[in-house]
Amino acid sequence: MKTYKNIIFVALINIIFFFAAFILIGNVYSIEYIDKDKKIVKITPSEFLNLNPSRLIGLQIWDYVGEIKADGTWDSSGDAYLYKQAHDLGQTGCFHHMSDGAISTTISSIYDIDFDSISRVMRISSYMSGSSKTKRANGIDTSVGILIANAYKSGNIDNLRKALLRAMNAGTVVYDNRIFSSSNWDNGSNIDSDEANLYNNYKRLIKVSDTTPTETSSVVNIKGENYSIIGPFKMSFDGKKIESVTVYKTSWREDTKMNIYWSNSYSTRESDWSVEFNNGSESEQKLNNNIFYLAVKSSKLPTQTTSYNVIIQQEQFTYRHARIAFCGGKTDVGQQYGIYYYGSPIIIKGAASWSLKHVANGKITIEKVDSEYPTQKIQGIQLKIYGKTDIGNGWIKPDKTLSSNYYDGDIFTTSSDGTVTIKDIPMGTYYIYEIGTGTAISSGYKLEDQRTIHPNYNDPNQFAGTQDHGNAVYLGELKLNSESKSMEGVGQLRQKRKINNKESKRK
């Protein structure tokens, strides 16, 4: 018994669910029949736009201005129904006119215009009794855009007919052979337009997920300033250009161009970077479905280790849900009638967003003093520094990026106060190597004196004492983070660091 009740309960739930879904998709409307036997109806514009097209095929649209009141009298002021509203907006008329023929009001075919959110393009769906067809804009078949553009213009019934015939001949929509190929009202005006091209070409911008952009360790110098390279990025779009590019708290727009550049290659050459994101169709093609990189002014990035967003927005695109109904009788007699109606503007803004991690840079200051006479600073000591960081490992280069090649590494030399400071380096662990005495030789300082206290086997990287690494002496490591560690030896090595304007000293 309990099982039986459960079955009934589940069945009732399913019935309610499907009934609700039926309503939500616009298949249930209370159509008001004037003559149910003849399928003559009064419907509102909302019903016309949203009813399942199959329910409209074969219906006769009430073609009189006004309505019959409850007492049976005629009210010519009625405007609640489709014909009145469409007529006042110039969205009704004869596809073909015969002065001695009756007007055809039976719907023969339906042509529905809307936006396909999955394909991200405009589409036209067409219906006749027993057949249907859907065509999405593809930038090639111009009949799609032409039909859409003409369906959005009031007082345009003749050009709409021509656009519909063109779409039929191109195989874009179902072929209704009742529509005359010519009209005695045909004015021969041009139906092509820039607007039509937009509807045919537009594709909402989205990111393509086969890339994982990061903030790289490389910089490119543009007009005398350092720009950090981030990427790779990939996105898909068309028809509408890029409106803005935002990285963290700085943005590129047409009127603020100099903070962000782009390139199709991972390059440190200034000539490979452009500030023109919308340089006509050529630039759009380079960024559409192709890998590209961004160069952001380094001073505009966060000062602390944190995550931030890169957002690229497309110019807004506006369309309207529209529906065309062709009413036709025999091909040799009668007036062929049409109604088209479009709703309020709908705005679409394409966008792509990525989350990146910024590793804050800091600085280290190394001080060399005599171990027996700490007040005596040692000038001219030559150092190279190897780093292991979140963004990679390598020797610190002159541009503060890292290289696996020892000979790419910069030589840092202590000044008259015995110090050398290395700025704008990422957080991590740094290994200090002494490679030469420089001007310190005159004071009797020798490189090998260091090796007796700092033997090569202390070097965790096994660079010390090797010919490929300049016979360097490993002095110790420095952690550029919350930890602190001292390094001492011949010519005592003292260092301090500064991260985000907070200093800590080590002795």
Walkthrough of the structure:
There is one protein chain. The chain is α+β, with helices and mostly antiparallel strands and about 500 residues long. Among the domains are: about 1-30; about 205-320 and about 350-355, no CATH class; about 360-505, Immunoglobulin-like (Sandwich). Helix content is about 15%, strand content about 35%. A six-stranded antiparallel beta sheet has the order 6-21-20-7-8-9. Strands 25, 26, 27, 28, 30 and 31 form a six-stranded antiparallel beta sheet that branches. β25 (about 380-390) and β26 (about 390-395) form a beta hairpin. α5 (about 140-150) runs antiparallel to α6. The N and C termini lie far apart (about 85 Å). The model is unreliable at about 15-30 and about 480-505 (pLDDT under 50).
